[in-house]
Structure formats: C-alpha cells, structure tokens
Amino acid sequence: MAETKAGQPLSPHLQIYRAPINMVMSIVHRLTGASLYAGTLVMAWWLIALAGGAESYADFQWFIGSAVGRLVLFAFTWALIHHMLGGVRHLVWDTGRGFDLATVDRMSWGTPIGSITLTLAVWAVGYAVR
After folding, report:
1. Are 48 and 56 a contacting pair, CB within 8 Å?
2. Residue 58 burial by Cβ neighbours in a 10 Å radius (0-12, 13-18, 19+)
3. For labelling alongside 83, which of 45, 106, 110, 111 has CA 20 to 30 A away?
4. What pLDDT is attached to residue 12?
5. pTM of the shown model
6. Rounded distance, CA 77 to CA 86, Å?
7. C-alpha pair distances (Å), 112 with each of 2, 12, 98
C-alpha cells in the first residue's frame, strides 16, 4: 500500500473508514431490490399453486405456514417496504430537495426505522385480522 512520508496511508481503509448512513442505505436499497426478485418467485409459486388445484395449494400452504415460510414472508414484507421508502427518498431527491446533510441523514435513518416499524405494523394487523 502506498504511504506518505509520515507513514500514514494515502487513502482510508476499512479499519478506519466509517460508511455514512446514506451510503449504507443505498447499498441496502440495491440488495432489497434484488431480493424482491426472490419474493416474486414465491408469489408466482402461490399463483401457480392456486391454479394447480387443492393438492398443489396444500403443498404451498404447508411451506408458507412453516417457520421458514413465515420468515421468508416477513423478510419479503420488510424488503418491499424498505425498498419503497428508499424509492420515496430518491423521489424527493429527484425534485431537487433534501440535499443538505442534516436532511440526508434524517431521511436515510428514516428508511430503516420506518421500514421496521411499518413491517411490524403490517404483520400485527395481519395477525389481528386472522
């Protein structure tokens, strides 16, 4: 690695660099977008099972009712809401607003806080209706 005369590195590296929240949320936004593809496959499986008859749908219900299936649904719900809130954040930026650092940080922190809160609310309502 290249160093200055004082022995300090020329650029920060992972041991000393702290990623800003807006960069982390940008990465998570991309990851949730990619994970929505997997969730869409589960939704396609649901529709195919629905069209396939009672036995096919029973197999799907068995999986989705299991602990793994519920975890998949919970993760899909969170990814969908997180990706939506990240999209809203980018939509605000597309209007030319919210570029001062304090607003960027608030909106960036609002994405995970809002997505966790809304996911728990959706699941609480779902269980209450059930």
Report:
1. yes
2. exposed
3. 45
4. 67
5. 0.85
6. 14
7. 37, 27, 18
Cβ neighbors of 5 (< 8 A, separation 6 or more) are: none
Residue of 30, 13, 26, 33 whose CA lies nearest to 107: 26
Distance CA 116, CA 64 (A): 21
DSSP line for 1-42: --B-TTS-BSS--TTT----HHHHHHHHHHHHHHHHHHHHHH
Q: For residue 15, is it within any domain?
A: no
**Structural domain count, the chain:** 1
Question: What's the confidence (pLDDT) of residue 19?
Answer: 86
Cβ(45)–Cβ(57) below 8 Å: no
Range of the structural domain that residue 121 is part of: 21-129
CATH number of the domain where residue 57 is located: 1.20.1300.10
In a domain, 1, yes or no: no
